[in-house]
Design brief:
Blueprint (H helix, E strand, L loop, with lengths): L2 E6 L6 H12 L2 E3 L2 E3 L6 H8 L12 E3 L5 H7 L18 E8 L19 E7 L4 H14 L5 E6 L4 H11 L2 E6 L7 H17 L1
Parallel strand pairs: 1-5, 1-6, 2-5, 3-4, 6-7, 7-8
Helix pairs in contact: 1-2, 1-6, 4-5
Length: 206
């Protein structure tokens, strides 16, 4: 079975939406190691509510922090320390989708960042969304991953299509293009199923 680590070039780029689509496409299990804020409607709740299949299992967060901030700051408010040794991947015989928090260099504590949760055998899915500066943020994210020695890196673009942005990113990085998810007018189980069907083939070949 395979682990898919979904990260983004920043916050609010569509990681949770893409996570739901990938979970549905692969009928995979889902785990968000660190949730910061919005605990009553967490990313786990959101993905679970968007997935139709009955195979996927949703694991509890290793850390559920109260404040919607960077995990290191949210943990300080909760008077706890995020400890990587306590972030233990759940055991499953299914594919597992792991959703990070923010971008790859978001700090978990004084030493560790989200990138430190990624393992070499993981297939990494980077979510990129067009905005002024997104090319730079995307290239920096991919370079940071490659500098750590990660080989299996794919990209999904979310939001309105920008061909010149997407083409230069793909040309410069040579990462695997897994698809794009255009702006969805309605986000529900039906639209997630439609988008899952579009990317399933690429995910299976990734």
């Amino acid at each position: 079975m395979q682990n898919y680590f979904i990260t983004g070039i920043g916050t609010d780029v569509g990681k949770t939406l893409i996570s739901a689509i990938v979970v549905e496409a692969l009928q995979a299990d889902y785990w968000k190691p660190v949730q910061a804020g919005d605990l009553q409607n967490s990313d786990t709740h959101k993905v679970k509510n968007l997935v139709s299949n009955t195979t996927s299992h949703f694991f509890e967060n290793a850390y559920a922090l109260q404040t919607p901030m960077s995990p290191h700051a949210a943990a300080e408010i909760d008077d706890i320390q995020v400890d990587l040794s306590q972030i233990i991947r759940p055991k499953t015989t299914n594919n597992l989708v792991i959703e990070g928090a923010g971008g790859i260099l978001v700090p978990l504590n004084e030493k560790d960042c989200i990138i430190d949760l990624i393992q070499q055998k993981d297939k990494i899915i980077l979510v990129s969304r067009h905005y002024l500066g997104s090319i730079n943020h995307t290239l920096l994210s991919i370079e940071a991953l490659q500098n750590r020695g990660f080989k299996h890196i794919g990209i999904i673009f979310s939001g309105d299509e920008h061909p010149t942005t997407e083409s230069i990113i793909l040309s410069k990085t040579k990462v695997t293009y897994l698809g794009r998810v255009s702006e969805l007018k309605n986000i529900n189980k039906k639209t997630i199923l439609i988008e899952a069907e579009k990317v399933r083939g690429n995910l299976n070949e990734f």
